[in-house]
Design brief:
about 300 residues, alpha/beta, Conserved hypothetical protein from pyrococcus furiosus pfu- 392566-001, ParB domain, Arc Repressor Mutant, subunit A, five-stranded mixed beta sheet, two-stranded antiparallel sheet
Length: about 300
């Protein structure tokens, strides 16, 4: 009885151990199957339908003809450079860079695309998208300017660090940023190629949007060169506005004006050009008032 009992006990103990071992093995297998094995840092094929576009994408316009050419290239040779994504949730991805490749792939109805999976924070995601985007050769000057501005404002990066990140001189970055001072109509014209970036840079030196637009129209209608534009801008910026009596701060003129007003007892406006020439304007409301002014001048 004792031996039998011991065998039974030993048998039951062994079964228990085997059960535990099987349970652990099953658990490990289940974990391997169900657990999301890290794909970060790897290039994989993913369904295009599982990719959402980057809401922080700095690029705002995509040339249709250029996309068709890229689509034909992908059709013939495949996607040579994988896009970059990060995994939002299991099997759902958000694009970091490569939107043109995704759009072109959709044009030829590709189902999958090669993608490099990266683990990034929102700020890093934006910076990666911006820096990757800025390296492209087909961006217009305003897109580049907006991208530089976003890197400075949203990533809180200095001009010096930005220069290092994108491999551009600080003066180059500053020249692009100046374009954002242009009237929106001129920015649009610059993007559409009506004027060059050099023209835009000169126009950005004019503070008044009205003066900017006036010269912008003249550049297009008269086909002004950059040098001609620069000369006009310099003239506008050095031109001194006409002076009127109400804003006149010159003591010499003030005294003489006071003498004339006291002598004749009449109101008038004084305008002086930058060359020193000017006008004395005497306003009147009726012929009667005009006659009275003439009498005062003639001391009648």
């Amino acid at each position: 009885m004792d031996k039998k009992s011991k065998k039974i006990v030993l048998g039951r103990g062994l079964n228990s151990l085997l059960d535990d071992s099987n349970n652990k093995t099953d658990s490990i297998i289940e974990n391997i199957i169900t657990k999301n094995i890290s794909i970060i840092g790897k290039t994989i094929e993913i369904d295009i339908d599982k990719i959402t576009l980057n809401p922080m994408q700095p690029r705002t316009r995509f040339n249709k003809e250029s996309l068709n050419e890229l689509a034909l290239s992908i059709k013939n040779f495949g996607v040579i450079q994988p896009i970059t994504v990060f995994e939002k949730s299991k099997n759902n991805f958000e694009l970091i860079s490569g939107e043109r490749r995704v759009r072109a792939s959709k044009l030829i109805q590709l189902k999958k695309i090669s993608a490099f999976v990266k683990d990034v924070k929102d700020s890093e995601k934006l910076e990666m998208a911006l820096v990757e985007n800025i390296q492209r050769e087909d961006l217009d000057p305003i897109e580049i300017a907006i991208t530089y501005n976003r890197l400075i404002k949203e990533i809180n990066i200095t001009h010096e660090k930005l220069s290092d990140r994108v491999g551009k001189k600080r003066s180059t970055i500053s020249n692009y940023l100046r374009l954002l001072k242009l009237d929106p109509i001129i920015q649009s014209g610059l993007r559409d190629g009506f004027i060059s970036m050099a023209h835009g840079r000169e126009l950005s030196g004019i503070k008044s949007y009205k003066n900017q637009l006036d010269l912008y129209e003249k550049i297009i209608s008269k086909k002004l060169s950059v040098r001609e534009t620069e000369k006009i801008v310099r003239g506008l910026n050095t031109k001194k506005p006409s002076l009127d009596y109400n804003n006149l701060n010159n003591n010499a003129y003030q005294k003489k004006i006071s003498l004339i007003k006291d002598r004749f007892g009449i109101n008038f406006n004084l305008k002086i050009s930058k060359k020193g020439s000017g006008q004395i304007i005497i306003p009147f409301k009726s012929k009667v008032e005009f006659d009275e002014i003439i009498k005062k001048i003639n001391n009648e």
